[in-house]
Amino acid sequence: MLEKVDLKQKMSKEDFRKKGEALKAQLTTLDGPIKTAGLPVIILFEGWEGAGKGSIISRLIKNFDPRWFTMVNTLPPTPEEMREPMMWRHWKTIPEAGSMAIYDRSWYQEVSTLRIQQKVDDLTNIRHMNEINNFERGLADNGYVIIKFFLHISKKEQRARMDALKKDKDTKWRVSEADEKTNKEYDTYYNAYEQMLEYTNTVYAPWHVISGMDERACAYEVFDVVADTIQKALKVKKDREEAAKHEASLINPGQYHFLPMPKLAEIKLDKTMSEETYRKQLKKEQKRLAQLHNRIYKEKIPVIIAYEGWDAAGKGGNIKRVSEALDPRGYEVLPIASPSKEEKNRHFLWRFWTRLPKDGHFAIFDRTWYGRVMVERIEGFCTTADWQRAYGEINDFERQLYDWGAIILKFWIHIDSEEQLRRFTDRQNTPAKQWKITDEDWRNREKWPQYEEAVDDMLKYTTTDFAPWHVILGNDKKYARIQTLKIINDTIEERLNSARKRKR
After folding, report:
1. Range of the domain at 211
2. Is residue 402 scored above 90 in pLDDT?
3. What region does 224 belong to: left with phi over 0, alpha with psi -120 to 50, or beta?
4. What percent of the chain has pLDDT over 90?
5. Which of 29, 79, 159, 353 is most buried, by the most CB atoms less than 10 A from its CB?
6. Is the full-model pTM beyond 0.90?
7. What whole-number distance in Å separates Cα of residue 280 and Cα of residue 264?
8. Which region, left, alpha or beta, applies to residue 359 given φ > 0 means left and ψ of -120 to 50 means alpha?
9. Do residues 258 and 463 touch, judged by C-beta distance below 8 A?
10. Do both 340 and 484 map to the same domain?
């Protein structure tokens, strides 16, 4: 892609004034329509050191109302950020619906300059680029506009600009050792950029590779692309929203290996446990988990435990018995309620990406990202196309967590309808428990068949070999708690033993 750029292209000051004014006028009128339409826009700039990214961004943002955009200056990851998945810090910066985020550098640092500086191997780099493509596809599918610019200059021009900066005592600080290295190893960086551009040049987020040799010509082309892309996006948004209202008929969970799962109706719930056995097993498994937590922390392995289940299935009591065994400094329980306004205005996974644990820590989710394919599906809080697409988005999300090194444990606490009715009635008739039962619980109970169908689909399309579901038999709470603890302990032990063997 780089070799096709015309580095000799220039624009006179007079031509820029004549042609650029019309584009500037178009840009200044975009803020209102973007906000009204609820269109989230991402504009990112990558390119060579010294290519003029800062100058072009300064020219561009003068055309926008500063209330409706954020400026993101992406630096190399900090030690704290290195403890999270690669895309974690970038998910945190995506804009709300109706606003723009303009990036000076972005997630592409990890697969270009940092790839070389940190000597990232080819397989890891390909995985990172796949994560970026999945990230951008997910945003685009959920209505985001992504405009990507790469500013290209020659090695000779880069050297000349660096030398000019170094001659002035007020600007020489801007040329770092890393910048010098990019010029000395220009061909190495050129090949890395070329691979990055080719691999991540997609229909939903194409690259615009532009010459940075002449600032006016570069600015004009950037203005033209931004104005044209956003205007087209505004025109098609209504059509997309109308089309999304009609039922889709395609579920694409992604190219993963799925494990067979029984339907809920096929699962017997006849397992029970005596009080004496329960107390002995609880003490044993909690002690085991406490010991494993120390090893998890030492090995810096993150653990993500996701709880779903029927209302009154016993998730709270189950979580309590797990958390009792953990060092309180190394875990967090995250109850997930209805999304806030801020969360609704972003991709549905945003609020979960921002709640991930550090490596060596536990995150226990009471309700999860699977609300998209259950309550949101059934209650009509998203379109059919949204929840059908979500299986693949969730699998991509969990695959990134797995590749990061996380242990992912997903539990569906299962009870039958009769047991739920018994527990609802008990809560209703016991003053100390009445706060646990709401009118919404009774309404959800009336939709048991729809929820059962949704859960069956969830188990079918998201039980992968790297993040399988575990159906916990919950009619007997004691049995369910011990079953869950054993699965957690066995899974962690298996991972630790595998890690030990790889080190030998």
Report:
1. 10-236
2. yes
3. alpha
4. 88
5. 353
6. yes
7. 30
8. beta
9. yes
10. yes
